[in-house]
Amino acid sequence: MARSKESKIELTAYDDLFETDQSREEAALSKIRDISIAEVDEFPDHPFKVLMDGDMEQLVDSIKRNGIMTPATVRQKEDGRYELISGHRRKKACELAGLETLKCEVKELTRDEAVIVMVESNLQRSTILPSEKAFAYKMRLEAMKRQAGRPTQDNYSPVGNNSEFATSSDELAEKVGESKNQIFRYIRLTELVPEILQMVDERQIAFRPAVEISYLSEEQQYSLLEAMEYNDATPSLAQAIKMKQFNNDGKLSAEVIQSIMQEEKPNQKEKPVFRDERITKLIPKSIPKGQESDFVVKALEFYNRHLQRSKAQER
């Protein structure tokens, strides 16, 4: 009699366990739902750009034909709205396709967990701009440090030796497949003024010189922008390092920046004084280098005198 009771108890416990597993599966499935796009907010300071390019057009066409194949990832906020973690391009494509809802998987995540998931999902993209990596690495590293209860560090340096800081950066380096120093270099780009950072994204300024420039103050960087425009040139790594050294010595002024940018670089081709071919083709080959401007000024003076004489004869 006692044995039959024991068997019945074991069977009931097994049924309860089975029902619990089943309910968990149903609960997981219920977290994938269609949510009104109007209720889904962008991730704060999202570092990855949503471009209106050919890939976006293809994604819009695919969604119109087949709908969303992979749900976006969101988390519910305290106010009842949703925060988009993964799927910013899908959300935009749905808007362009005229849809009112977005298929989403709702996850229970803390702020720092959400940051880590957001960065991980977006680093899978085939093309990532330097600025996107820079801010993504910075956000993720700071989130990892907060999770581990480690102090944050604002002055990122490729030679940072803080043991607690190094632990988080080692973990990040292993996860993203880049060296710790390279991660620090990317994070340094977040110190660039927007105009120079855009030039890095557009490959007008090389990566390593940009890292050295990031140590200059905002005012010095804008002085450098003026010097680059005036000289129609971007700094080499050697020039960027020189500016950083002058800055460390407290001697980097706008004049020094201009002087450094005017230095002739190895194997640098001599640039014409005038870039407009309509002007350069009218300057005789016999005019010595460096005197092209004088020739053009004299030609314009002569032309102005001709116009004045012509007006005088018409009176």
UniProtKB/TrEMBL annotation:
All residue ranges annotated as the ParB-like N-terminal domain in the record: 33-123
Record keywords: Chromosome partition
Source taxon at top rank: Bacteria
Organism: Neglectibacter timonensis
Cited Gene3D superfamilies: 1.10.10.2830, 3.90.1530.30
Membrane-spanning segments: none
Protein name: ParB/RepB/Spo0J family partition protein
Family: Belongs to the ParB family.
